[in-house]
Amino acid sequence: MKCFVRWIFTTMMVVIFLMVLAQGLVMGQSMTAVPVRSPIVQAASLSLEVQITADHWQQDIHIPEKWGKELLLEEERALRFRFTRISSNPPSTVYYHIYKGKAPTMFASARPIASRLIGAPPHQGQSRQFDIDFKEFLPAKPDGFDYHVVLSGLAAGGASSICSNVLKVSYKRQSVTKFPTPILRRVVGTRNALGQELLHQQTPVAMITQLFSVEGSDLDASPQETVVQFLRQNKVHHEVRPEHKLTRALPAGGASLSLRVPRSLSHGMYSVRVKSPWGITNQLPVYIGGNRWADVAHWQLVEGGVYENHAWTEECQGIATDGKYWYISSNNKERRALYKFTMGMELVKSTDVAKHGVVSAHIGGLDYFDGKLYVALEQPKQLLVIDTEFKNASLHQFSGNDPLGGTFAWCTIHPITGDLCTTKFDGASALFSYRKAADGSYVFAGSVPLAKTVTRVQGGDITPTGKLVLVSDTKPRGGIHVFNVFTGEYHGAVTFPVENGSPLPDELEGLAISPPGTAVVKGVPVNVHLILLDNDYPSKDDVRFKHFSPRNLGDLFDY
């Protein structure tokens, strides 16, 4: 009888032990897990990550969910992990193991401080999450140790298979969410403008007109979470969200975010920076110009004064202004000269160009920039630079490969880059730029293709915001054509009749753009000024001024 009772008792104990063991396996609490001292087969078929931060709001900033391969932990708590199946041959059952101290290099001999059953792996390309409560084996205070988590399973033949990367959790006194600071490395402006950063006030600045991009590291590309800020005097002036479809990863790492300049932004210098959930980047300078469309067709033509049979009207070639005075060039064979007039056309002074060493047979158009006049000369081709008092002058040659050859009908100074600019006289399909060399000569520096070819270009000017305005002496109608100086985009033209009379036809000559509020004709504020030369013989030529008033100053100056 006693033997029978012992047999019944022993049988019941075995059954209870097996039931408890089975329940522990089902609940994922088995301490036996994978036999870690068995041979190891390396087959990383799962990618393991830890949740660094959950999706939440921190004041007015949305912090999105973030996962990584490492975590800095400063208090004992539960952590969430996820693993993604990346191969078609995962183990049938997955376990996790936690190792304390240095990352184990031989899992067959290393002993984990904890092992648990997770369950079956997900389908390929999908993820599964699980939690580990580190309170079970961490001390109350950070101990300065690293803890490593790895996944394993059983491979074919029953050998243990390490099937994931090794993930590190550092239990130290550091912030849990210590992210890399995002860095703004470069602003890429209008690519047609020679594809490079241009100089503005001796500072390398990206010129941007309509589309531009910012490049850097740790920039969050999500348009819902990231904005690019325009600042003036360290105050946020405007915010723009990236064009999500144009966002791309860079080959060397980092990201490129593409943006569109809002038309409400006026021209001028700004600083830009990127504000993302991970922080705010450093600032870089940019210059905005030429981004407003010019409604040229609706500019108003205002007829100006008529001047007859003066020495300066004979073969009058060019006009420039600083907003206080007019400067006019004359190719009068009897006296090739420069003239200075008040805005009311009262003569102030004049100078023979021969006094300044000029021997060229033709004086062309001229431009005013930063207290000096720049005068185009032909036969031979040279540039005359002279102050507005006609006292100090210098002559400059052209060196190197020059696409214009010996022609040089007019010139203007790019108000942003400081380059000397001009076009061909006939068949102008590009704006050519020249840069002053160390020896004082001017060297070809590049060109911007123009979307429309213009014939018989007699003059031109560039506004401070990047509008290129050319005057075309065509018959029976001539006029002005407007382009974006950075991209060559064509904004349109406004024309009027030009007589092809006898014995000599009329000619449209120079062009000048005056600052806002400095010129009024017949009670109308005007900003674009042309010379129409009425060729006479045997008497001297006459000059008729033609002026244009844009419907909106923003057409020229982006106000």
Largest sheet: 10 strands, mixed
Radius of gyration from the alpha-carbon trace, in angstroms: 38 Å
In whole angstroms, how far apart are the ends?
A: 109 Å
What is the mean pLDDT? 82
Helical fraction: under 10%
How many domains? Answer: 3
Number of alpha- plus pi-helical segments: 2
CATH class of the largest domain: Mainly Beta
What's the total count of β strands? Answer: 46
Question: Could you say what the CATH architecture of the largest domain is?
Answer: 6 Propeller
Shape: rod-shaped
In short:
The chain is mainly β. It has three domains: 34-171, Immunoglobulin-like, CATH 2.60.40.2840; 183-288, Immunoglobulin-like (Sandwich), CATH 2.60.40; 296-557, 6 Propeller (Neuraminidase), CATH 2.120.10.30. Helices cover 5% and strands 49% of the residues.
Question: Can you tell me about this structure?
Answer:
- This protein is mainly beta and 559 residues long.
- It folds into 3 domains: 34-171, Immunoglobulin-like; 183-288, Sandwich (Immunoglobulin-like); 296-557, TolB, C-terminal domain (Neuraminidase, 6 Propeller).
- 5% of the residues lie in helices and 49% in strands.
- The chain is built from 2 helices and 46 strands.
- Strands 1, 4, 5, 6, 7, 8, 9, 10, 11 and 12 form a 10-stranded mixed sheet that branches. Strands 14, 15, 17, 18, 21, 22 and 23 form a 7-stranded mixed sheet that branches. A 5-stranded mixed sheet has the order 33-37-36-35-34, with no helix packed on it.
- The longest helix is centred in the first third of the chain and has 25 residues, at 2-26.
- Residues 20-41 and 191-202 have low confidence and may be disordered.
